[in-house]
């Protein structure tokens, strides 16, 4: 029989359209219980009612569970490998590249890509799709206004060329904004587009169960062109990479054989 947590997940899926079954239970339960304590709710039903009545609690729930922190040029050495080794390798295969930033949060990752292409590969035609389950983070992405912390790791040359600074705000240039198409998408549920040369899925799967992670990596493999590359986060190794049909070309870069 389903226990209280499982019933809560079922109701959450029906009432809110959010399916947390693919996420690790201990981490989720700990966070949800702490949120409930903070608003003095003793039961999951009371908490669901409160989230229905007062949308700010629903927002807080989403923010707490999905953890959407990001930054430009996160883990710089990996972006250097991408620029110096992976992109030139992909361009040997195809002159136009189709790229997907999956779990893009507030846009720092797809905009970093757009700047790298604009600055270093100006003649390459690249389409960049950026998706996330959370529409509100993408609204922030489309706004394109960031603080100093978000750009702290970004090489100066990109900041100078592609941002306007107003007070403590860094406003991204329209020419970069125009290169990224944002779309709502749930990686555990929705259909994947095909024929990508490059997919980035970084710092998204940390709370996914092993089963959902493994299913996800298989689906990414299917969505890549032969020779295409999946770029993962710096704590995310794909243990069954060879079985899926990936070969490691550099740490955190998996190529479809
Ligand atoms: C920590 S951010 C990562 C942002 C960026 N990739 C980076 O590395 O800086 C994780 C993002 O994954 C998104 N996310 C979580 N579960 C998801 C799912 N099932 N489908 C799509 N996006 C999801 C969250 O909404 C959040 O914006």
UniProtKB/TrEMBL annotation:
Keywords: Methyltransferase, S-adenosyl-L-methionine, Transferase. It is an enzyme of class 2 (transferase). It holds the Pfam family CheR_N. It comes from the Bacteria. Residues 1-257 form the CheR-type methyltransferase domain. GO terms for biological process: methylation. One of its GO terms (molecular function) is protein-glutamate O-methyltransferase activity. It catalyses: L-glutamyl-[protein] + S-adenosyl-L-methionine = [protein]-L-glutamate 5-O-methyl ester + S-adenosyl-L-homocysteine. InterPro entries: Bact_Chemotaxis_MeTrfase, CheR_C, CheR_MeTrfase, CheR_N, CheR_N_sf, SAM-dependent_MTases_sf. This is protein-glutamate O-methyltransferase. SUPFAM superfamilies: Chemotaxis receptor methyltransferase CheR, N-terminal domain, S-adenosyl-L-methionine-dependent methyltransferases. The lineage of its organism: Bacteria, Bacillati, Bacillota, Clostridia, Eubacteriales. Its EC number is 2.1.1.80.
